[in-house]
Amino acid sequence: MPGTVIAIDGPAASGKSTVSKGVAAALGYTFVSSGHFYRTIAWGVLRDALPLPLQAKEVDAWVPTLSLELKNSRIFLDGQEATGHLSAPEVAAMVSQAAAIPSIRNLVNSKLRTLANSLDLVMEGRDIGSVVFPDTPYKFYLDASPEERARRRAREGLVDSVSERDRLDSTRATAPLKIPEGATVIDTTELNLQQVIEAVLSRLKKEGA
Asked: Across residues 73-93, what is the average pLDDT?
């Protein structure tokens, strides 16, 4: 039977991943990050030395050759584990460009929807509630001020530009970042991790999840 999907969307460094992991642990659900899938594809772009900037024609021919799998929370591309490459600066710099290509989004969305055929999921990303699972009744959108999100990225030792990623993700033609219809919006700027997790769990309890 299809599983339950809790969709948690938001911009970079809004707290999506850590909150989603906490909610998944509390509920006994499987945590999935769509961003990890896109980073895996971005790593594949670099691995296979696709011409840059990416052009849809070349990418469309390349995507059908890929094998993308999630096994025990580890992501594999063509049988190679990609997990250890996902935080590399060059991958972070490529991910928004890769995610703007429709054929890449179609591949990732297909994989994400397949997971929901048999698992209860807490899934985080930028279009989970708006595009991947628009019919789930359990949608959240986490946000924080640009200054706070930049501080969080710096504390993590990451150097990608929050403002530039916001611009790219919000203005892309395919599945731009936006608040999904019916989503509960939580501003995490002044909240600690546990407070945000509790806010999500409280809302889910009210909704009968």
From this structure: 94
Q: How many CB atoms lie within 10 A of CB 106?
A: 13
* CA angle (60, 63, 21) in 5-degree steps: 125
Rg (alpha carbons) of the chain, rounded to whole number: 16
Q: Which domains does the chain have, with CATH numbers?
A: 5-206 (3.40.50.300)
Q: SS3 letters for 141-157?
A: EEECCHHHHHHHHHHCC
Q: What is the pLDDT of residues 135-162, one digit of tens each?
A: 999 999 999 998 888 888 777 765 556 6
HSE (side-chain half, CA atoms, 13 Å) at 90? 8
Phi and psi based region of residue 202 (left: phi greater than 0; alpha: psi -120 to 50; beta: remaining): alpha
Between CA 184 and CA 130 the distance in angstroms is 13
Average pLDDT over residues 35-58: 96
Report pLDDT for 160.
Answer: 59
Q: CB–CB of 29/138 below 8 Å?
A: no
Q: Which single residue is written with the structure tokens 């995490």? A: 188
Distance CA 41, CA 66 (A): 9
Handedness of CA 140, 17, 92, 116 (dihedral sign): negative
